Amino acid sequence: MKKLEQLYEGKAKKVFLTDDPDVLIVDYKDDATAFNGLKKGTISGKGVVNNRMTNIVFQMLEKKGIPTHYVEELSDRETAVKKVEIVPLEVIIRNVAAGSFSKKLGVEEGTKLLTPTLEFSYKNDELGDPFINSYYALALGLATQEEIDTITKYAFAVNDALKDYFAQANMELIDFKIEFGRFHGQIILADEVSPDTCRLWDMDTHEKLDKDRFRRDLGGVEDAYQEVFKRLGL
Ligand code: ADP
Ligand code: UDP
Questions:
Q1: CA angle in degrees (0–180, nearest 5) for 106-165-233
Q2: What three-state secondary structure class fits 125?
Q3: Average pLDDT over residues 99-124
Q4: Among 45, 69, 47, 46, CA closest to 57
Q5: How far apart are CA 195 and CA 50, in angstroms?
Q6: Which atom of ligand 2 is nearest to the CA of 119?
Q7: Rg for the chain, CA atoms, rounded
Q8: Residues 1, 96: Cα–Cα separation, whole Å
Q9: If you average pLDDT over residues 225-231, what whole number do you get?
Q10: pLDDT digits (tens, 9 = 90+) for 151-186
Q11: 87 close to 182: Cβ distance less than 8 angstroms
């Protein structure tokens, strides 16, 4: 497979075309941003962790019947993926209150939720990824009802699989964001699953092992990514 011109450069990854029209190559960077790009920095080694972790997680999810964009890991930062049309919804699942949920609803961080929740943000940087519901998504033509139903079903199945996967590495999955795409008419999981997009806390000490260390200037950012890498045996 031949890497052709760059299609897109995002905040965390570069995306390249290939000689196969159905395949892209994603290249994970060490760049980190938070608060819709207002805070910028570098997390050394992050790209390697996020690439490897996403690939291992996506292969695990495939085995559990969730279709993903994963094709082949090409190097420690590069992976071939199916080229999808991204559904412009950030799908967020929560098991424990944290971040914007805690702030908005006045629920202390770390409070276990009685049931997992699902929410959508409209993936639009200019608008700051506003919170929307499925009626907005339908009204704006972002997805069909059938697609929303499939996305919802897959997102909860991803949560069940990830909770167990992280638990065996003594980490609690607090919340995460995933994205889906359309590939030849089918909804598949795309983008990434990494400490950039998940909140992961040590089960015993509740130490944060994710991007909140960067967002909140907690220090030990690189170490946290390396700790996740080590615990998952990546
Ligand atoms: P952002 O665009 O939010 O800054 P990234 O730096 O992670 O994010 O850039 C990767 C971009 O590629 C994202 O916009 C993501 O939605 C998109 N993407 C992820 N997987 C695929 C895929 N399989 N096909 C097409 N686009 C994808
Ligand atoms: N998240 C993400 N990208 C975003 C927004 C959120 O990956 O643009 C992830 C974030 O890492 C966390 C979850 O989604 O695991 C829920 O984030 P929240 O809504 O609490 O927002 P935040 O507190 O990060 O602003």
A1: 120
A2: helix
A3: 98
A4: 69
A5: 7
A6: 19
A7: 17
A8: 42
A9: 98
A10: 999 999 999 999 999 999 999 999 999 999 999 999
A11: yes
Q: Which residue has the tokens 């519901």?
A: 133
Residue type present at position 39: K
Q: Is the CB of 176 under 6 A from ligand 2?
A: yes
Q: State the closest ligand 1 atom to the C-alpha of 190, by its place in the atom list counted from 1.
A: 20
CB distance 154 to ligand 2 below 6 Å: no
Binding site membership of 129 for ligand 2 (Cβ less than 6 Å): yes
Where are any strands of DSSP class E within the chain?
3-9, 13-18, 23-28, 31-34, 39-42, 70-73, 78-82, 85-86, 89-96, 112-122, 131-132, 171-183, 186-190, 198-202
User: Which residue CA neighbors atom 12 of ligand 2 most closely?
Assistant: 176
At 83, is the secondary structure helix, strand, or coil?
coil
Burial of 5 (0-12, 13-18, 19+ CB in 10 A): exposed
Give 52's pLDDT tier (boundaries 50, 70, 90).
very high
Q: Is 212 in the pocket of ligand 2 (CB under 6 A)?
A: no
pTM assigned to the model: 0.98
Q: Is the CB of 101 under 6 A from ligand 2?
A: yes
Q: Cα(75)–Cα(79) distance, rounded to whole angstroms?
A: 7
Give the pLDDT score at 179: 99
| Rounded Cα–Cα distance for residues 137 and 9 (Å) | 26
Ligand 1 centroid distance, CA of 84 (Å): 10
DSSP 8-state assignment for residue 47? H
Cβ of 199 less than 6 Å from ligand 2: yes
